[in-house]
Amino acid sequence: MKLHALTKAITLATVLSTVSFSAVAADIPLSAVVEADQVTTKVLAVDAANHQVVLEGAEGREVNVQLSDKAKNLGNLKVGDKVTVEVIRSVAAYLDTDVDKGLPGSTERTGEIRATKDDPNPGGEAFRQVQVQLQITKIDVAKNQVTFKGPRGHSKTINVEKPEVQKKLKDLKVGQSVVVTYTDVLKVTTQH
């Protein structure tokens, strides 16, 4: 199953988005973070008709998982099979150098790839990517704080903790936009 390609592509696109945006509009990358976690467990029970699976959780506890009807080939999953769940989360932020570009807003993209019926091991990947445009309404360089207005008109002040981002505060202007892209990738593979 060539599902790992989606994980790599989405994560790489999110992290590199700050670079590609800067090439187009002279935007300034602010930060990029990628976190990943992986758990491998075993199947304790399968109810394919009701799209339910019981997995072995921490300390041997049973974890009941209710799947949607999109999980087509659960009949191939057997007690004792290994299930690996990998979650990758990335956040990338860049400063849009155009002042008064537009109002804050957000967009969302989702996608999935599932194992085919011919694949003996059920699994798949899904991603969700949300891009939020925030407008800078106040900058306090002395306190390392920036106040943003979000898509719903609410304001929020954040403390800028990272020294490399603190150095960039002096270059910010009220009215500029900061675009933050959140990407979550879930990958599930099974093995008999």
From TrEMBL:
Q: Where is this region: Disordered?
A: 103-123
Q: Mind listing the UniProt keywords for this protein, alphabetically?
A: Signal
Please list the residue ranges that the record marks as compositionally biased, kind Basic and acidic residues: 109-120
So which residues are the signal peptide here?
1-25
This one is known as: DUF5666 domain-containing protein
Taxon lineage = Bacteria, Pseudomonadati, Pseudomonadota, Gammaproteobacteria, Pseudomonadales
